[in-house]
Every structure is written in C-alpha cells, then in structure tokens.
Amino acid sequence: MKIIDGKILAQQIRENLRLKIKNLGLTPCLAVVLVGDNEASQIYVRNKRKAAEEIGMECEVHHLSAESSFEQVADLVQKLNANPKVNGIIVQMPLPQHLNSDKILRLIDERKDVDGFGLHNAGLLMQNQPSAMIAATPKGVLAMLRSTGIQLTGKHAVIIGRSNIVGRPLAALLLNQDCTVTVVHTLTQNIAEITKQADILVAACGCPKLVKADWVKDGAVVIDVGINRIDNHLCGDVDFDEVAPKVAFISPVPGGVGPMTIAMLLENTVEACEKQMKETK
Ligand code: NAD
User: 175 and 216: one domain?
Assistant: First the structure.
C-alpha cells in the first residue's frame, strides 16, 4: 500500500506556481468574499490567503457582516467583476441562511469563477470542453489519481456523494478521463456491493469512517475527500486503519485532498490571470 501524500504534491504545485508568477510580470489577485463569522470559514479563508501570499499572489478578503442583504453581497460581487485588478473571485461557503448561495454564485463573472461553481463552467466541464474552470476539489482528486501513475482509461470509478462542489463535477471529470463512473448517494441501495466493484473509490459524503474494509476491492485506489471532526480530531469518510492494508493507494485525512484543494484554487487563479492578460493584449 502506498500513501498519496497531498501535502507534498500540493507543495510541488505551489512551488511551480510561485515560479510561474515570478515570470508573469503581474501579480495575480484573488478576491475572497466572506459573509458572517463562521469559525471554520474564517480558518479556511486564512489558509487560502496565507497560501496565496506565499506564492506571490495577492489575496484580498472582503468581510461582510452576517446580516448583509442579498443586494449588499451582490453589489460587492459586481464590483469585483468590474475591477480589472481582480483575476479570481470566490464566495466562501456556507453563507448565512437568509442568502441564496446559488443565486450569488451565478453572479460571478465566468472568467473569474476560480471555484468553478457557476453554471457556465459547470456546463463546460459537463461537455468536456478544455476551457472549463474546474472546481478545485475534483481537480485536486484527479491530480492525486494521476500522481499514482495508474491508467484511468476504462477503470470503474465509484464516487460516494453527489454534491455540486465535489461528487457531480468529479463524476464529469472522471468520465472525461474515460473512466466508467458510478455515483452513489444516501438513497442508493446496497452501497457496499457497488463500492466493492470500484478500481477507484472516492468518498465525499461527510460521514466519518463510513467506508470499511469490506466495502473495498483488493488493490483499489482510494481517495478520501471527507473532513469530519470527532472530539477535536480530524478524520475522513474512510476507515483508514481498516482499509489501507487492502488497497494499492490511499489518501490520508488530514494531509490528502485538503491541501490539494487550495493548490488547485491557486492554479485556477493563475490560469484565469493568464487568460485575462491575453484578452487585454
Ligand atoms: P454535501 O453534504 O453537500 O454532500 C454529501 C453527499 O454525500 C450527498 O450527495 C449525500 O447524498 C451523500 N451522502 C451522505 N451520506 C451518505 C451515506 N451515508 N451514504 C452514501 N452517500 C451519502 O457534502 P460536500 O460538500 O460534498 O462534502 C463532502 C465531504 O467532503 C465533507 O466531509 C466535506 O467537509 C468534505 N470536503 C472536503 C474538501 C477538501 O478540500 N478536502 C472540499 C469539499 C468538501
């Protein structure tokens, strides 16, 4: 069994991005919209800003109060859309309950949609168009799979979870890599019978240690997207100790998909910046 070390992979990607930015002749700028005082969101935003600044990217955080109206958030997004200095915009989720997240995400200019959550980029990914800005977590999962050197073509990939930010875009992405893709979810019957057939198993359901040894085929590749906190301790959706001895490759939590997600967000921002520079030439 080999560990897919997301921390080391992400570090290499960030170093390449740092060198790229050095030669770009312009400092890419990522704008983060943070609404309210969700503690986890504040930590995520702090980590994104730190990672951006370490590679020479500017990261401006726009912090609005939890009581902000839809119009106030929308107004900020529109201003960031119109600001030529800003190359990428993300709205940190979750938003306070009274705000419609989907409606706000749809306001982000598709060229600056570095989370890839907007309809335009999701549609391009669905149609296997190379110009799609791919959501950071699925993009990170693909990079981790590629790092193993295994052939993806024809492999059966099973994804647990069908959210718009992980499961669904990942299904499209792996289909575009010529995998045979099955998505299972809360209403799927006999999940273990299906996951046992997977050459590649990705768990993205937010259920601590749901995936047990008898859910997994010998020699499979397992990527654990889940981040769950139990008694102040982080764990994934896979029971790592049980599953690891059976499989060819497995990603840990922490130190797996998490750091890759941030690295891919930075990569999307640099790519957005490069495209925007070409457009204005
Ligand atoms: P979500 O709650 O939006 O979606 C979860 C999905 O899993 C749903 O489609 C649901 O049908 C399915 N599901 C839930 N319980 C299930 C079960 N028992 N059996 C089968 N399917 C089940 O969550 P999300 O935003 O997609 O995130 C999923 C997990 O990934 C969470 O733990 C989240 O914290 C983590 N996450 C990690 C990163 C990262 O960077 N590592 C990024 C995004 C999400």
Answer: yes
Angle between helices 167-176 and 136-147 in degrees, nearest 10: 50
Per-residue pLDDT tens digits for 77-103? 999 999 999 999 999 999 999 999 999
The phi, psi pair for 211, rounded to 5°, reads -85, 115
Query: 195 with 158: CB under 8 angstroms?
Result: yes
Q: Is 259 in the pocket of ligand 1 (CB under 6 A)?
A: no
185 CB within 6 A, ligand 1: yes
The strand pairing partners of 211, in sequence order, are: 238
Residue in 113, 115, 224, 237 annotated catalytic: 115
Which among 186, 202, 238, 262 is the best mutation to test ligand 1's pocket, defined by most ligand atoms within 8 Å of the CB? 186
- State yes or no: is 48 an active-site residue: yes
Interior CA angle at 160 toward 204 and 95, to 5°?
40
Q: Report which ligand 1 atom has the smallest distance to the Cα of 257.
A: 41
pTM: 0.97
Domain-embedded: residue 165:
yes
Tell me how far apart the alpha carbons of residues 34 and 119 are, in angstroms, rounded to a whole number: 21
> What is the Å distance from ligand 1's center to 258 Cα?
13
CATH code of 36's domain = 3.40.50.10860
* CA dist., res. 263 & res. 260, Å (int): 5
Q: Which amino acid is at 177?
A: Q
Structure tokens at 34: 């943070």
Tens of pLDDT, residue by residue over 199-211, are 999 999 999 999 9
